[in-house]
Amino acid sequence: MDETRRMEEGQSRGQNGYPKDELKQETQNNNVGGDSIEHDRSVEPLVEQEQSLMKQKTKRVATLDAFRGLTIVLMVLVDDAGGAYPRIDHSPWNGCTLADFVMPFFLFIVGVAIPLALKRIPKVKDAVKKIFLRTLKLLFWGILLQGGYSHAPDDLSYGVDMRFIRWCGILQRIALVYCVVALIETFTIKVRPSTLRPGHLSIFTAYRWQWFGGFVAFVIYMVTTFSLYVPDWSFVDYNGEEGKRYTVNCGMRGHLGPACNAVGYVDRQVWGINHLYSQPVWRRLKACTFSSPAEGPLRKNAPSWCHAPFDPEGLLSSISAILSGTIGIHYGHVLIHFKGHSKRLKQWLSMGFVLFILGIILHFTNAIPINKQLYSFSYVCFTAGAAGIVFSVFYILIDVWGLRTPFLFLEWIGMNAMLVFVMAAQGIFAGFVNGWYYKDPDNSLVNWIQEHVFINVWHSQKLGTLLYVIFAEITFWGVVAGILHKLGIYWKL
C-alpha cells in the first residue's frame, strides 16, 4: 500500500535505489571519476522536494568540474615548479605542503562523482561491468605512465626493465579506491531507503554500508601499521655507481619514521623492493642531504635508508586512502538528497571543519602525525576536511552566487582532466615536442622557450620556472581544454 502511494506521488524507487524522478537527471562522464548532475532550487522539506522534482528547474553543478580542474592545476604546478620552490613540493616526511593536497583532492572528487555516475545505470550488472572496465583502464594508464616505460619529457628514450617496473602510482591508487567505493555503492542499492528521515544524521544511517567499508579500511590500516613486526631488511642501491648493498636495522612495531614503518614493509613483501619508487621524497630530509628541504646529493654519513626505495602510493597506504573516497562519496550523497543550498552547505561545512580540526589535533599532539607518504589517519582527516571546505567555497561562489565566468578556466580543465593529466602533468606533450631538436637534444623548442622567454628575461631560474609552468603549461592547457570543450571533445575513461 505504501509502495502504491509512493508511485502515485512520483517517488517510486528505481533499480539503482534512487527515486525514479532523480534518474531523469542528466550526468556526463568526462574523465577520471568525472560526472555532472542536475539539481533543483527548492528549499521545501525533503518529502515535498521529491514530490515536486519534476516541476523544478535544474542545472549543472559546475563546482564538480572546477574542483577537479583545480586539482589538476595544483598537480602541474607542484610537479614542475616544486623543484624550484621546495616549500610547495611534497613534505619530505611529516607535515603537509601544497603538493600533499593533490592526491586526497583527487580521491575526494572521484568519490563525489561516483553516486552521480551510478544513478544513470539502472542495472547492477551493467554498473559492475562499467566499474571493472574503468578500473582496468586506470591501471593500464597508470602502469604505462608511471611504471617506468615512459621517460618523458626530458629523456627521449622509452622502455622499462621488467625487473624494476613500478606497479604502484597515482592512477593505480585512484583505480583501487574507485573500485572499492563504487562496488560498495552498487551492491548496497537494495538496502538503501528511497527517502531520508528527518535529522542531520539521517544521511549517515542511510549509507551506513559505505561508512562501514571505510571503517574496515581504517581498521586494516591502523592494526597493520601499529602491530606488524618489521624486521631488519637490506637492499641494493642500483642508482649508485657500484650497486652497493645496505642494511637497515629495525626489529620493531608501530614505527612511523622512514626506516621501519609497516607501510614500506608491506610493499617490500608484496611487490618486491626493486618495484618501488626509487626516488622517495625522504631524500630531502636533513638526515639525508645538506640541501634540505631541496633535493641535493646525499650526505656521506647519511643513514642507509636514505638510499632505499619507497612507494608513496603503496598497498597499505592505498587502503587508508579508501577513507578519502568514502568521505567524497558522502558529499555526493548530500548533493543528491539535499536540494537546498543551505542544507547542502550545512552538511558539507560541518563535516569539513570537524575533519580538518581533528587532523590538526592528532598531528600537534603527536598522536598520529600528518604524513602523506604513510597516508596517516590524521592526513586523511586534515586533507579531506580541506577538500570539503574548498568544495563548499567553490559551490557558494559558482553555483550559489553564480560567479561562474572566473572559474571557466578550471571547469574546462576539469572536464578534460585525463587529457591534461597525461599531456601536461606526465610530460607526454613536452616529450613529443622535444623529439624535434637541432644537433643536441637540449636544443629543443621546449628548452628554448624555458630559457629565452622566461628564465633569461627575468634573470631568475626560480621565477622563470614558475612563470613557465603558469603560462606555458597551465594556461596553455586551459586554452586547449576550452577549445576541446567547445568542440565537444573529451577524453573519457
Automatic annotation (TrEMBL):
Region (Disordered): 1-38
Ranges annotated as spanning the membrane: 61-78, 98-119, 131-152, 164-188, 209-230, 315-336, 348-368, 374-398, 419-438, 466-484
A Pfam entry, by short name: HGSNAT_cat
Domain of life according to the entry: Eukaryota
Basic and acidic residues: bias regions: 1-11
Keywords carried by this UniProt record: Membrane, Transmembrane, Transmembrane helix
InterPro entries assigned: HGSNAT_cat (IPR012429)
Domain Heparan-alpha-glucosaminide N-acetyltransferase catalytic: 60-188
Name of the molecule in the record: Heparan-alpha-glucosaminide N-acetyltransferase catalytic domain-containing protein
